[in-house]
């Protein structure tokens, strides 16, 4: 049969579709090679569905000015090319890229046009395996939107399959060099199920390392660790198998050897039937599993139109849940059989486990003896802390904990720092995981009640000093009380709680507001207790201050003590507090260097005789 030109019978806006694919759909020129490999692999899969013993190979040959890719797939007839062009025409008018791709997946579908990101011309020569009598067909298209279609002589291609030839676009030659083609072929196609080669060099390395047989568990662990290092650049803390047949997923999760932020998205690698789909599958795992990086191969997940990420649908949600369940199972196995590995894991990734435990009471109960919390008794699990203290008091902020921890510990009050991520919510959930545990948020009344009172007679004797202290603290919205507590080295303790701070914030807003808003804020005035400056009667400095006869000096000293207590509590300073610190510092400095006029003018002892000695003439002169 002689070759003949097929007249253009389809209205195809090829120029617009090429522009859409090459400049808008794909994120990088490198995807062209993935699309070429995918076309070949899908064509082989389609042929083997009908001929199980059919040859299965894809060959890439770098040639001057371009690239040639040959496969032994199902090929195309002239009629199928017509149908393909009609499909492309519909896609160019209605944007049905996914439908077009799905319709001709397994032949040389619309993904072939991705090659225009690096090529100025694409030539496809194909012969059908389904119709032995059908002649080869050639489709040649340029990036300006023009194309030709013709049948070829029988000897133009004797065996079924397809050959795709690319002519490099000016400025894109680097993407079709031998080194780059080999690199991209390994990157995308290392796990493909068929024989893929660049020239004579084999690209595929199957089966994947997690599906191979190994002489021992240790040898398998070493092999998986080496694969992780090559793929992600780190040596894993542990490896979790992700064989989930019902979800169509096989692969591994690597536990990171160092802590990462919960906000950091997972750089998971997803292969779809062996082809690398994406290295940024952020939605593959639940958010709490940010401490692992996955490599999986799946046949159940759906790719987006660009085949550069996963389509969000019910299947992806089911896979995410299944993989999360497998990681939960691994944690349970560690808790029961691998205590040493669990301790090592939690020392790095306790934050991720706490995130999971908030929503999974079973995991919380399982991890309760192991999860560390900062307490007044040091780093302890909540289970151990609850055994030591009848009431588990906690603070919601780190500053609150630091404010009271030393005092509370000295008074025998057990307090847990709930200011870190997830800790407050887990502490509040403790009774559900540990029946009988009592949890209470620490407030100023609880702390004050545990401090030793002062003898009534002594407090009466110090009434003038306390009156001065209360008068000084009143403008600052703070009460002054006298107690005796340890450690003795702490002269004063500034106590407030969350409700107190909320009320202070409301009062400040009311002062700054006017009109209607000020009235609204005034109506919201709460009944929260005021902040307290607790003066330590056992502290020598406080005792000396109480003995001062100068009320003005005592007031300045009390203001300085208040400022120091704020700083020790690591509280944010209001403008009034900053001004107070400056004022008291200068006031006390002035007192320290003050010399009254009489003292300044009087000669110091021995000054007069020395002066006289200097003015008297010496004998012998």
Map the helices and strands.
Elements: E1 4-5, H1 14-25, H2 31-50, E2 57-63, E3 66-71, H3 78-94, H4 97-103, E4 119-127, E5 137-142, E6 147-151, E7 161-168, H5 178-189, E8 195-198, E9 201-202, H6 217-232, E10 238-241, E11 249-255, E12 269-272, E13 275-278, E14 292-298, H7 314-337, H8 339-359, H9 361-367, E15 373-375, E16 378-380, H10 382-388, E17 392-395, H11 398-411, E18 415-417, H12 423-428, H13 430-433, E19 439-441, H14 444-449, H15 456-461, H16 463-473, E20 478-483, E21 492-495, H17 498-512, H18 515-523, E22 531-536, H19 540-546, H20 551-568, H21 575-593, H22 597-601, H23 607-615
Computed over alpha carbons, the radius of gyration is 39 Å
CATH homology-level superfamily of the largest domain: Histidine kinase-like ATPase, C-terminal domain
CATH class of the largest domain: Alpha Beta
Kindly give the count of domains: 4
Q: Which descriptor suits the 3D outline?
A: elongated
Helix amount, in percent?
Answer: 40-55%
CATH topology of the largest domain: Heat Shock Protein 90
Number of helical segments with 4 or more residues = 23
The largest pleated sheet is described as: 9 strands, mixed
Report the sheet-strand fraction: 15-25%
Q: How are the strands ordered across the major sheet?
A: 1-6-5-4-7-3-2-8-9
The total count of strands amounts to 22
Structural class, judged by helices and strands? alpha+beta
The CATH architecture classification of the largest domain is: 2-Layer Sandwich
**Rounded mean pLDDT score:** 82
Low-confidence regions:
6-11, 91-107, 604-621
